[in-house]
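Journal club prep, notes for RB
We'll compare a predicted complex against what the paper describes. Inputs for the pyridoxal-5'-phosphate case:
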Amino acid sequence: MPVAAAGDGPYIIDGEGKRYLDASGGAAVSCLGHSHPTVIRAIKDQLDRIPYAHTAFFTNTPMEELADTLVEQAPEGIEWVYFACGGSEAIEAALKLARQYFLEIGEPQRSHFIARRQSYHGNTLGALAVGGNQWRRRQFEPLLIKTHHVSPCYAYRDRRPDESEEDYGRRVADELEAKIQELGAESVIAFVAEPVVGATAGAVPPVPGYYRRIRDICDRYGVLLILDEVMCGMGRTGTLFACEQDGVAPDMMTIAKGLGAGYQPIGALLVSRRIYRAVREGSGFFQHGHTYMGHPTACAAALAVQRVIREDDLLARVREMGELLASRLHERFGQHPHVGDVRGRGLFRGLELVANRESKEPFEPELALHVRIKRRAMDEGLMCYPMGGTIDGRSGNHVLLAPPFIIEERHVDEIVDKLGAAVDGAIAEVAG
Ligand SMILES: Cc1ncc(COP(=O)(O)O)c(C=O)c1O
């Protein structure tokens, strides 16, 4: 690996002075690029005040202010925040709090989680269990808690030609209802899903109406809805929370990545009033915790990131640059013989690569096309996030793009040019 030696806006500079345009924000993290002076100043100032104080003894100002900022903008019903150090930790907290909620309200028989195939929720054991990516789960299967997986909402692959988007969305959402009925409604804790699927499928948004139906099904059976916005949240899709665009509010939501933009490690679990009250009026204590939760320096960084996004009106910029990126991607790859789908929302875009555009047949997994694209992109001076196993954890390849919110038109051109060269070069390589 080259050594990351310095940052310059949306670029990372290696030890030899070579510049890489960060078109994936690492893994959808660096939404303000790599040298934002306001965020760096906020971290230094916090270090001068108090770097760390354990939350069993003290609260701290940046944590309180960050929680207020998040709640103020959160979907209806979300009123409380539980801080963590990253996405997996936030998911673990969600799973445990969901289980504890049912103990508090006298339904201790609930023990099942339902999630979706091809989702990614993190690499710790609970998060891996709800995740639906076979390649990541397989070898740890005997250690994983009981989870059940239904189909993702993946219209490019799974919508039948005779189905409207709405009919397709209803069909896959109804799989959740069938699974709840199969397990027995009184035994299910929660349904966990990424509103826009990121790492494992390449920026796959739901079809219209899908999440509203999911919300209705959860409500009908008293099952909690946990939305994982670790990757797609915090403005990435053009609204602060991705689920705003689907017209639903979850019972709990996890965020991380763009929350601190990589300036410090931080994640959070956003919790609804109903769940908070059940714990408060019940045992009074969430049986969980980590040493570094609510870390003052991490919260100061995230607070500064969120203030910059608001003050510089960066969500409007995400929408504007997102449209521009989408249209340039469609121009460059829309008719490409080996790009089957160009998709996503805001500055969260994906390309799905295919051996044959008509049949949608994928490339052989053994060719590891995604590895070749990544290597060629790095040679070109471009960071993107290609991955294999798009379809079922084994077959299929995609490239995920998640550039910083501060990019300009010239960066969009650079992304599309360099990505085009990397994709064409890698395909020529596997073609012989
Ligand atoms: C949707 C989603 N959830 C959870 C995680 C896990 O986050 P972390 O790697 O910070 O533990 C990720 C990481 O890519 C993610 O994309």
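Talking point for the session: The chain is about 40% helix and 15% strand.
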